[in-house]
User: Fold Probable peptidoglycan glycosyltransferase FtsW from Flavobacterium dankookense.
Amino acid sequence: MKELITNLKGDKVIWAFVALLALFSFMPVFSASSNLAYMRHGSGNAFTYLLKHGIQIFVGFFIIYKIHKIPYHYFKTISWIMLPVVWILLAYTLMKGTVIDGANASRWIQIPFVGITFQTSTLASIVLYVYVARYLSKKRETPVTFQSSLIELWLPVFITLILILPANFSTAALIFSMVIMITFIGKYPLKYIGVILAAGIAGLTFFILVAKAFPDAFPNRVDTWMKRIDNFASDKPDEDVYQIEKAKIAIASGGIYGLGPGKSVQKNFLPQSSSDFIYAIIVEEYGLIGAFSVLAMYLLLLFRFVIAAHKSPTLFAKLVVVGLGFPIIFQAMTNMAVAVELFPVTGQTLPLISSGGSSIWMTCIALGIILSVTRKEEEIAQDEAEKEKREIALQKLIDKQLQEDEEEEKINENEDFSIEDKANPLEPILKKN
Assistant:
């Protein structure tokens, strides 16, 4: 174990928080999965789901370990190559996406032969964030013009968003918000950001109008968005309202200390209790103490991302840490906000805690890239420390040599003086005569 830990490079605090969140996830996932086990298999034995979650976490950490060994600047080229690939995957997902448990069409694709579903928008977001960081770091030395950035930067962004938007508005909105944040931190001109925001709002409005006018022309979930927003504002009876009501009952039942691990009642009635609404189960079983502990871990992880970005050696590294780290925290906050009815139902999972292989693995890819950046920081710090040690050792050798030279000079002076005294022993007698 000690040897394994020594092989882990990068920010050890980030490693620690990721490990804590992953280890904690086993308890609420095991508890919340009993509902799924009963519905699908007729028994409440959730061991299969626990084992599956454990394998997903193990594979996720293997992904982090392998990716954090790759020099982070390699991802500049990888993002440029992968962007057309994710466009193809997004288009395929939009047209041939899999329906999961009768809901959320066109978000997932089925991986052949292994039976694993994969949400392509999460991979697209990672690739896009790195691509935006690459562009902003490349244009750092030259003035940015709106015409050139429109083709090189915003066209890829809007192509990606257009392919995600019809099936997943919340993810498209999250990606667009994070891209705007990255460009702001990357010192992209504010007047151009304002134009892009206006264009984004206008494009969304146009898309909604077209989807309303031609509902059968292409697959979209505009009616679902509008219904959720309307229900959020008016509290009309609906499946989403039912989910929120059960989540609020779970949160209210938790109190300060909670009902105890595995003793949730609402997990038997709350749909998606092990994924989208797992935070409500955490509050019910672990109370406000558990709720604030989870929140604190995400906030501390955010603080560590800020430190890592500040220490990053290049602009690209800073933007990568911000672009990949902040969405993880923002997604977590969105999931918690939905559970307490601060946001409409969005379908965003709780990173590293909710069950679901693709969401865990995509989060692990992002964390691996961040740790690759901090690994470089660590190597630079070690090089500087070794350089400082060498300078100190060299200075000690110089000081020692100078001291030895001084001592030798003193010895020589003393020897010269004694020789002069002994050179003429008869000199006093000669002087007397």
In short: Residues 99-105 have pLDDT under 50 and may be disordered.
